[in-house]
Amino acid sequence: MIVTDSSRLIQLLKDTRTIAVVGLSTSPYRASNGVAAYLMRQGYTIIPVNPNYDEVLGLKCYPSLRDIPGPVDMVDVFRNPAEVMPIVEDAIAIGAKSIWFQLDVINEEAIARADQAGLLVVVDRCLKVEHSIHRAALAS
Q: Which residue of 51, 100, 129, 133 has the smallest Cβ count within 10 Å?
């Protein structure tokens, strides 16, 4: 299901505890780093996914979603749209409940595949911004 309305976004954010951030950078100047750090401060468990690093934000970094040893609620994607189909397939394979395509990460085929597989799908939105907007509702 493609999530677009506020009430479903709020419920998704409430139900999510563990977020795998694909494409998480070590650079504090990259959006992925700022979003992940913010989400950590909000109490979410963050799992960095990037084959280029062993550690990001003081956390063990995994080369791919399939290398993560435990369950993942949400996959947050910071990648080039042309490269996201394998990420969708991995998210499905590990049993993620949702996938969040960050701003400008739009690949219609990958979105359709994630939706068809039963994942909750958020497209072209920033997870940090949405969390901030709905923060009061999330606290209740």
A: 51
